[in-house]
Design a protein that fits this description.
alpha+beta, four-stranded antiparallel beta sheet, three-stranded antiparallel beta sheet, 15 helices, about 25% helix, globular
Length: about 500
């Protein structure tokens, strides 16, 4: 694993003119709502309140290049083993209670190369023995970083099928009703106290949106930055309950990115960023340092992940035409295949996409300060700016929905803004649309969302909600229809 080039700060471009490993485990069923909620709080990371966005983050007058910085190396195979076997989250549900509620795991949700109790668990859960000698089950990184594509599980794909829109309360409290006093109950109480803390602040407006930034901020608010000691009472103001939704980027892009997050934050040592899931229950710096050493290998595994190849028909003649369209209209920001990625941070005023996520959640000023004063800030920096990074497009065909908030279901709609639905819902079984390249969907009328319980709203992406807008990135509107068709064909090959 090669060390990255040394660098710091950002470089501006000057005058700016906007342009006119796959691991398949076979067919898998969709996860049940209850199963998703059981360990939802341990991943990564209409409610009242406003997001923490005012004059923050710092303005970005023009695009900036985010430079590469030194990174630690590791062993990808050790990283995979650590990823699916280690207890880096620090707490969980006692295994005896977990099995009573979960029952046998469907074979299609099993990973083929796990051992012990983990060989019987779904791909996104891990069992480990706590310091008190209790076996617990918790979520692992794949809870948010493995997704389904045409009935295959793709490790490293953002899990856009997960549901954070409901309440965690039944899944949190039920295990406690089954446990007598003793070590198992104490382990449950530790886990449950964290779940009760985070659940009001990780509820999204719609299935598929990810609340990781609010999750991280909530955990920061309850920790002493110097010692990482947990406090049930907040030590600083918690984030608001209005979640800025994010679409989880695929892992295979990390080898080309110099910053971890959509808004250019997450600079310096990537390992310290990747291990933030440990912030759920790792309550001292000594334990965090031990996890940090193991996460160098997890980062090495993440950098080894490659995008899946497009499985359908590719028109080679159109691909070459599309390559020219891409080079003329897209490459300045997104880079050409086989060339270094530009790592351009684009101001929100230029790209025009929903600005909420740039400064909400853990990117609010008080949480940036917490991070800088903590163990995590010894080697890494948040440094959000008022903009979004134009990401690499490797495997872009597979990573629907699009934009940083997942507001656009297909690439065809991304390239022609008039095709973007205001309110849309997935078709049953999340069918892939090979013509539009993305999720097959239906448009939903506003009056259909006014049913009494609000259940329907949870399954409809509504771009009129704060943080969920599908505006911006309208550069494709200047293309002719035949250019867009050729460009889509080229994007299949990335």
């Amino acid at each position: 694993m090669h060390e990255r080039a040394r660098g710091s700060g950002s470089r501006t471009l000057g005058a700016w003119t906007p342009p006119p490993p796959r691991r398949s485990v076979g067919s898998v069923p969709r996860l049940s709502h209850v199963g998703v909620l059981l360990c939802a709080g341990a991943c990564s990371v209409s409610l009242g309140g406003a997001p923490d966005v005012d004059d923050w983050p710092p303005p970005l007058p023009e695009p900036e290049v985010i430079p590469a910085e030194p990174q630690r190396s590791g062993d990808p195979q050790v990283g995979w083993d650590t990823l699916v076997h280690d207890g880096y989250v620090g707490c969980g549900v006692p295994a005896n209670v977990y099995w009573l509620g979960a029952g046998p795991t469907p074979p299609t949700l099993l990973l083929p190369d796990r051992r012990g109790t983990n060989a019987r668990l779904p791909f996104d859960r891990t069992a480990f023995i706590t310091s008190a000698g209790v076996e617990v089950v918790t979520a692992n990184c794949l809870f948010c970083h493995a997704g389904f594509l045409e009935n295959d599980l793709v490790v490293g794909l953002g899990a856009s099928e997960k549901d954070f829109s409901g309440t965690l309360e039944p899944a949190v409290e039920l295990p406690g009703m089954m446990l007598a006093e003793g070590a198992e109950r104490r382990e449950w109480e530790r886990w449950a106290s964290r779940m009760r803390t985070i659940q009001p602040r990780i509820r999204t407006e719609v299935t598929g949106a990810n609340p990781a930034d609010n999750l991280a901020a909530t955990l920061f608010a309850h920790r002493d930055p110097a010692t990482l000691a947990w406090s049930n009472a907040p030590l600083r103001e918690e984030p608001t309950k209005q979640v800025a939704p994010v679409d989880v980027p695929p892992w295979w892009l990390m080898k080309r990115k110099n910053a971890m997050f959509h808004n250019g934050a997450g600079r310096g040592d990537q390992v310290r960023m990747m291990m933030l899931a440990s912030n759920l229950c790792v309550d001292d710096v000594k334990t965090a340092r031990a996890i940090d050493e193991r996460f160098t290998h997890i980062r090495a595994f993440i950098l080894s992940v490659e995008p899946p190849r497009y499985p359908g028909h590719v028109d080679e003649g159109l691909v070459e035409q599309g390559r020219g369209v891409f080079q003329a209209n897209c490459a300045r920001c997104h880079g050409m295949p086989g060339e270094p990625h530009p790592n351009l941070l684009i101001p929100t005023e230029i790209v025009g996409t929903d600005p909420m996520a740039a400064g909400a959640g853990m990117f609010a000023r008080r949480f940036v300060d917490w991070f800088a004063a903590s163990f995590y800030g010894e080697r890494a920096r948040l440094e959000p700016r008022r903009g979004y990074v134009a990401p690499p497009l490797d495997g872009i065909w597979a990573s629907a929905p699009y934009l940083h908030n997942g507001s656009v279901p297909t690439l065809a709609a991304l390239l022609q803004s008039s095709r973007r639905p205001t309110r849309w819902s997935h078709l049953p079984q999340r069918r892939y649309d090979h013509d539009a390249l993305g999720w097959a969907h239906v448009e939903v009328a506003a009056d259909l969302l006014e049913e009494p319980t609000g259940q329907a709203r949870r399954h409809v992406y509504d771009a009129t909600r704060p943080g969920y807008a599908n505006t911006g990135h309208t550069f494709g509107d200047a293309l002719h229809d035949d250019e867009r068709r050729a460009l889509l064909e080229f994007l299949k090959t990335l």
